[in-house]
Design goal:
The structure is a homodimer of 322-residue chains. Chain A has helices at residues 10-24, 37-43, 61-70, 86-98, 112-120, 132-144, 156-172, 187-198, 215-222, 244-253, 262-276, 282-293, 295-298, 314-321; strands at residues 33-34, 46-51, 78-82, 101-107, 124-128, 148-149, 178-182, 204-210, 256-260, 302-307. The first copy, chain A, is α/β, with parallel strands linked by helices and 322 residues long. Chain A has 2 domains: 10-59 and 155-318, Rossmann fold, CATH 3.40.50; 62-149, Rossmann fold (3-Layer(aba) Sandwich), CATH 3.40.50.1100.
């Protein structure tokens, strides 16, 4: 993806976000806000959780995919993407809802449950070697065959779609001081920045990122996208490199990226499971880990927190019960 | 507990349930109803899930404990019970909310997380040898010391309290054909029977029970309480023997008890985790297992299903992620 010379204006972003809100009405679940008195005590703030683990396909990704599909060129009968995770299933499900075909490039070593999720929504899986080059080649080949491309996060339609989670969160809560979401490729968090701008709310936006995939943090420090960071984290949904468009938005509007360790992520995962009974995935727990690690930033604040998804390998967890 | 010569009349039961509804207002969470399109498809019915895993202390037990405490004799400053599980934590939490002391007899081999839950609500744990006799002796000794007894299920105040979950479920849904809940000691399911009667609803009530703790099923067949059934099931919340009062209600009003195997329970647990992202405990999954095992009973029906609780050992599950 090449750097853009011309970026949308603030007014164009606002229009994109508002159009997504209108387009996704009746297509996505308005997920509930949950609270936990125990977690409020543990975290030292008022934590208002936006439950995207209860979104269709178990993650916020369904919003961006649905918004991209809502404005396809006339006559489009099939879409394609590459994904080792939630975006593939989301695109397949959104395509199925419209009656069009979805082709998903996945690495040969993708988690079987994620492959099964794509197939459950009748998506066609195209396996490739587990390298970035093989993935891009396979994705390009699908586009040459005429399938319309819907990238996982570096796409304004996708970013505006993800922004609707934050718009709802702001509308469902009565005054937020801060909004906190994880950052991987940056679709959700850049959407949060544009949502706050679009509804003219006075809310600070912060991101949580694993230390083992800290490219967004490094990129903002350096003032340019760092694309060769080593990646090693349990938060498999956040291993992607920050997108071009996403980075541009974060540079302008994000307050900061808070780094958390895998141990902190796992502790936070267990706390949400125990106190909220919500089966979130580790990537999603980074936000809770960030509040625990930097309590002084959040003390006494009303914090809107996006729980991004709940697609853990439940068979693996079940084995622990036996 | 001795058999009663005189049972409350239907009108007395109705009054007890309605009083509990009034007394628990603002003391318990009105838990939400959740639905899952995927589970509806898998189960072949319209499944309306009452989410008591989101109740305070993570289980419906908080209702019964709170209702018992709402009508204590004047001057009562402490309560006691015996429990290896959710009732102990529920009573401790309900007592803490009223500012009175709670004493909980627990077997020495109780799961550490459950002991910790009682202590987190400032309950005093009294360990006993892991036998029924030792447990009853310890419980009797606490009563002699003047602590007011709140049994886990064989108590009308507790049963009426549990009934409020079913009253809410009926009010929150627009016409149910059936109501399905697990049976262990029988507090929740006898409450469901009395709730349906109290609100004069035309709803069939069914119970789900593990094959490895099938005393309610055996008792209803025999026409008398069978108290010496061998117990071996993963559903640790349902290992108790059906209570005297509970059995009396079930004999009069329950349509049937549906038995399910541990394998079916585990499969159902995983399905709820995967499709609903709700971290329910295996005891709670018996209801979903029952629909899968006896699909002809439920086909096309609107089924109100009480998810009873979500207190699994999250540390154990977390270990599976690492």
């Amino acid at each position: 993806m090449s750097e853009q010379a011309h970026w949308p204006t603030a007014a164009e972003h606002d229009a994109g976000v508002h159009a997504a809100v209108a387009q996704l009405r009746d297509r996505v679940h308005v997920t509930p806000i949950m609270r936990s008195a125990s977690l409020d005590r543990l975290l030292g703030c008022t934590a208002l959780f936006k439950c995207e683990q209860l979104q269709r396909t178990g993650a916020f990704k369904y919003r961006g995919a649905s918004n991209a599909l809502a404005s396809l060129p006339p006559g489009t009968t099939s879409v394609c993407t590459h994904s080792s995770g939630n975006h593939g299933a989301a695109l397949a499900a959104a395509a199925l809802a419209l009656g069009i075909d979805a082709h998903i490039v996945m690495p040969e070593n993708a988690v079987p449950t994620k492959v099964n999720a794509v197939r459950a929504y009748q998506g066609t899986v195209h396996f490739c070697a587990p390298t970035q080059q093989a993935r891009e080649q396979a994705f390009a080949a699908l586009q040459v065959q005429g399938h319309h491309a819907v990238p996982p996060y570096d796409d304004w339609r996708v970013i505006y779609g993800q922004a609707t989670a934050s718009v709802e969160l702001i509308e469902q809560t009565d005054g937020l001081d801060m909004l906190l979401a994880p950052v991987g490729g940056g679709g959700l968090i850049s959407g949060a920045c544009l949502a706050v701008q679009a509804v003219q709310a006075d809310i600070r936006v912060l991101a949580a990122e694993p230390e083992g995939a800290a490219d967004a943090h490094a990129s903002l420090l350096a003032g340019r996208r760092i694309v060769d960071q080593p990646v090693d984290t349990i938060a498999d949904g956040l291993r992607a490199t920050i997108g071009v468009r996403n980075f541009h938005v974060l540079q302008q509007q994000l307050e900061s990226v808070l780094l958390v360790s895998d141990d902190e992520i796992l502790q936070a995962t267990e706390r949400v499971w125990r106190h909220m009974k919500q089966l979130i995935e580790p990537s999603c727990a980074t936000v809770v880990a960030a509040i625990t690690r930097y309590p002084e930033l959040f003390a006494g604040q009303r914090v809107g927190i996006i729980l991004s998804g709940g697609n853990v390998d439940t068979s693996k967890l079940l084995a622990a019960l036996r």
